[in-house]
Design brief:
Length: 260
């Protein structure tokens, strides 16, 4: 496939996408979730998945026909006295080709103590992307993952722009903490590649999640990459259907909730 064909596995005819990241097993404890059964259940309302290499191999049958994004790095948060290395690259285009992936995803942490190494690894991945036509989705976050106090409008805006400047095909980021629709629209408008929004830790509040997604779409986001708020939800298929309705059908939050 060429680059456009690969991207079309995620970005549908309306230019939008619902991506389910299930790449968390190398980072945090994940219990009670079998990738194969989850993928099979959610395929009707999910356009693509972010997976680690083992899941790409083990769930190849269930992933058939969907966008497959290979996670190329590990971004395990600091634990105890472990040094916070941020993100460190594990795989690249060769592995993506071997599992038939349509994209690769890697972290880009701006202002992180290990920013120099992370940025060099991102640049190397993008160089491989140019050679192979496998797009890169950069997960662009200030400092590290799970730092909402640092996800200001200014910090998110800088990191999203940096990801585009480095050559990302799609930028995944957080909705700025306490930001408005207009704030996020200014960030999206300054980025010439599609921006998708992550969900972060499970909120336990369906209305708040759907409102955040609705605000993102109204601001011009091309979609979402929401993982834990789906697979840790008591009814993953129902919340995924509601998210799909907002992203692809421009549903209101109220109507999406009623459709669950």
């Amino acid at each position: 496939m060429d680059r456009a064909q690969n991207l079309s596995r995620f970005l549908q005819s309306d230019g939008r996408t619902v991506i389910l990241p299930i790449d968390h097993g190398t980072i945090i404890p994940v219990t009670g979730m079998t990738p194969q059964s989850l993928i099979a259940e959610l395929n009707p309302v999910v356009d693509g998945y972010v997976v680690n290499l083992g899941v790409a191999l083990g769930a190849a049958e269930e992933l058939e026909g969907k966008g497959v994004c290979l996670r190329t790095d590990c971004y395990k948060p600091p634990y105890g006295d472990n040094v916070d290395e941020g993100s460190y690259r594990l795989y690249g285009a060769d592995e993506a080709l071997s599992v038939g992936a349509h994209a690769m995803m890697n972290m880009l942490y701006s202002h992180h103590p290990n920013e120099a190494d992370i940025t060099r690894e991102v640049a190397e991945l993008i160089a491989e992307s140019i050679e192979t036509d496998i797009p890169v989705i950069l997960e662009a976050l200030p400092f590290s993952i799970g730092r909402p106090d640092d996800y200001t409008v200014e910090n998110i805006g800088f990191t999203v722009r940096a990801a585009a400047e480095l050559g990302a095909d799609i930028v995944k980021t957080a909705f700025p903490t306490n930001g408005t629709v207009d704030d996020f629209k200014a960030i999206v408008d300054s980025c010439w590649v599609p921006v998708i929004v992550l969900g972060g830790a499970a909120m336990g509040d369906d209305e708040a999640l759907l409102q955040m997604v609705k605000n993102s779409i109204e601001a011009g986001a091309a979609g979402i990459a929401v993982g834990r708020n789906v697979f840790q939800h008591p009814e993953p298929a129902k919340i995924a259907r509601a998210l799909h309705a907002i992203v692809h059908d421009n549903a209101s939050v109220d109507s999406a909730l009623r459709a669950m």
